[in-house]
Each structure stands twice: as structure tokens, then as C-alpha cells.
Design goal:
The protein is an alpha+beta fold and 130 residues long. It is built from two helices and six strands; from the N terminus they run βββαβαββ. The two termini are 13 Å apart.
Length: 130
């Protein structure tokens, strides 16, 4: 196993890694809308802004692991409010384009830092140079 760490996405805010690569697969931790520059404050309380930031953070972690959004096999989306499903889905679809990984979407009572959305992913590693 190899731990993934990039300064292009927020550092883990607990005792875990941004991602782990094992046997050619990268398992990311859930990403929320924290900035990569540090600090532990969320971006604005707008689900659209947070979703864009979450996907950028996820992409940065995947790229550091030698993967990409196009290599994602499965994602899980956690929503603080299922009423945000359509908004998040539209942004998610734009980020993934024609690629359609398997996915689960779950409504949760609360997320870390009271985020509105969190996304994790499992993806294939296509570049082992990291």
C-alpha cells in the first residue's frame, strides 16, 4: 500500500490519508469543500460552489495517485440535504462527461465541518510514476 498526499487538495483533518493506492486501485477519502491552501474553513454555504470545490479536490487527489476522474470506477456522494440532489447531479455530470462510474448517493444527518456535500471515489491507477 502507498499513501497519497498532495498539497493541491486539503490535508486530512483527522487520522487518515487523502487516499491509499493498493494493487493498482486508488481509494480516496471523502472530500469536502475545504481549500487546498490550508485552514479548516468551508467555502460558502452554497451547494453549487461546494460541489465544484469537492470535485476539484477529488481530481487533485486522484491525479497525485496516478489516476483521474476518467479512471473512476465508483463514487459515493453524501448530501446533507437530498433536495440538493439535482444541483449536485448536474455539476457531477459535467465533471465526468461521458464517463459514468457506478455511484451511490446517500442523505446524511451531518457532514464534517457541516459541509453540504462530500464525495469519495475508487479508481484505477494508470500512471505508476507517483
Amino acid at each position: 500500500m502507498k499513501q497519497v498526499k498532495t498539497d493541491k487538495a486539503p490535508s486530512a483533518i483527522g487520522p487518515y490519508s487523502q487516499a491509499i493506492v493498493a494493487n493498482g486501485i486508488v481509494y480516496t477519502s471523502g472530500q469536502i469543500a475545504l481549500t487546498a491552501s490550508g485552514g479548516d474553513e468551508l467555502l460558502q454555504e452554497d451547494v453549487s460552489i461546494q460541489t465544484v470545490a469537492v470535485l476539484k479536490n477529488l481530481q487533485a487527489v486522484l491525479e497525485e495517485a496516478g489516476s483521474s476522474l476518467q479512471d473512476v470506477v465508483k463514487t459515493t456522494i453524501f448530501l446533507a440535504d437530498m433536495n440538493d440532489f439535482a444541483t449536485v447531479n448536474t455539476i457531477y455530470e459535467k465533471a465526468f462527461g461521458e464517463h459514468k462510474p457506478a455511484r451511490a448517493t446517500v442523505a446524511v444527518k451531518t457532514l464534517p465541518k457541516n459541509a453540504l456535500v462530500e464525495i469519495d471515489a475508487v479508481a484505477l491507477v494508470t500512471d505508476y510514476s507517483f
